[in-house]
Design a protein that fits this description.
The chain is an all-alpha fold. It has two domains: 50 residues; 32 residues. It starts with a helix and ends with a helix.
Amino acid sequence: MFRIISSRQEIHTISTTWLDSLQANVDEIKADIANIKATQSDHGEILKNVATKEDLTVMATKDDIAGIKATQDLILQLLQAKQ
């Protein structure tokens, strides 16, 4: 009869230790998930300010800018010639 009580106590002790360990792991995992969510939120805000592929297709190229500069220079020359 004493062995049954001892075994129950032993099972209870082992179970309690295992559950405490499991709870500690769950708490650690929850903290890690909270950190990941915070980091993702920060990165999301940063990425909102980054140019997308569509933005880049409508941006002027070096050739476009060179053409605009040439046109500006020509207009400036024509205006200076009229003065």
